[in-house]
Amino acid sequence: MTADTVVITDCDLPGTACEDTLTAAGLRAVRAAARTEDEVIAAVEEAAESGSAPAALVVQWAPITARVLDAVAGPGGVRMVSRMGIGYDMVDVAAATERGVAVANTPTYCIEEVASHTVAMILTLDRGLVAYDRALRAGTWAPTAQHAARLSSTVVAVIGYGRIGSEVARSARALGYRVLVHDPFVDAAAVAADGHEAVGIDEAVARADVITLHAPLTASTRHLLDARTLAAAKLGVRVVNTCRGPLIDEDALADALASGHVGSAALDVYATEPLPADSRLRTLDNVLLTPHAAWFSPEAMQDLPVHTARNAVDFLAGRPVPSIVNPDHARALA
């Protein structure tokens, strides 16, 4: 019996843990370097020519669009896409569902890391650590010159209450912050049971001293923070984003930071990555920037490719994959 083939469209992580996990399960693993639609289609075709037609894709950043799916899915083709990471906005999930292709992500490999990075960013802004450091290095000894918050008087609005958002909320509450939560898909009673206050998005933005984003990137959440929503926020509000760059209109944020309406921001993700050299965000002193590093620890880097590969292994073996984001995909095959 010919082993199922899994194409790893792209992966910038070191080592061969993904391939090793697939081959240990009896699958054939083919690694490509595809970052465009045409390259993904070509990689799948080449893998089919050299062995069995690929049954699954492991994807880091490659676009899996309707056009790609039309070329690679169908009878005897790709039946599953496993995304190497939590977000899956590079996959057209609706198109995959229509074609009977399952899509899974890897939601558990870096919960601690992203949550702790987020809380570190919040505390850094609320205690003025970067500004103090810069001033001291420049020769200024001014203990009362920077913004410094009393946590028990500070409201943190957590937008998105999934695995990471709920952990950020728990940690913030433990530190003494007052926590608001907005998530239209989570019952308000569950939020209240955790000791937080569930509110609508407008109220969250209006009442928050700190806004931290943990929502998936969808058509409805793109530019969730734009000129209008930022204008409705408190003067001096702090903004933190360790989730997805396009949740924020970066031009609107830069304007609000420059005017002082937004007091400061801490960003780990951007609309374009790496952050372009000419980005206005690089020029503003009241912005803390990190290079999409919130997920990182040595342990997380080891877990990510393994978890991603196991999604494909379990799916192709007929075992449940709890992280499938489109459980309705099977209806297209009925």
Summarize the structure.
The protein has 334 residues and is α/β, with parallel strands linked by helices. The protein is 36% helix and 15% strand. The chain has two domains: 5-109 and 298-329, 3-Layer(aba) Sandwich (Rossmann fold); 111-289, Rossmann fold.
Task: List the keywords.
334 residues, Rossmann fold, 2 domains, 7-stranded parallel sheet, 12 helices, 36% helix, elongated, transcription corepressor activity, amino-acid biosynthesis
Shape: elongated
Give the integer mean of the pLDDT values: 97
Q: Give the helix proportion (percent range).
A: 25-40%
**Which value, in Å, is the CA radius of gyration?**
22 Å
How much of the sequence is in beta strands? 15-25%
> How many angstroms does the end-to-end distance come to?
26 Å
CATH superfamily of the largest domain: NAD(P)-binding Rossmann-like Domain
Helix tally equals: 12
Number of domains: 2
What is the helix/strand order?
EHEHEHEHEHHEHEHEHEHEHEEH
What is the total tally of β strands?
12
CATH architecture of the largest domain: 3-Layer(aba) Sandwich
| Largest sheet data | 7 strands, parallel
Low-pLDDT stretches are none
> Any idea of the CATH topology of the largest domain?
Rossmann fold
CATH class category name of the largest domain: Alpha Beta
Return the structural class: alpha/beta
User: How is the largest sheet built, in terms of strand order?
Assistant: 8-7-6-9-10-11-12
Keywords: Amino-acid biosynthesis, NAD, Oxidoreductase
GO biological process, one term: amino acid biosynthetic process
GO molecular function: NAD binding; oxidoreductase activity, acting on the CH-OH group of donors, NAD or NADP as acceptor; transcription corepressor activity
Pfam families: 2-Hacid_dh, 2-Hacid_dh_C
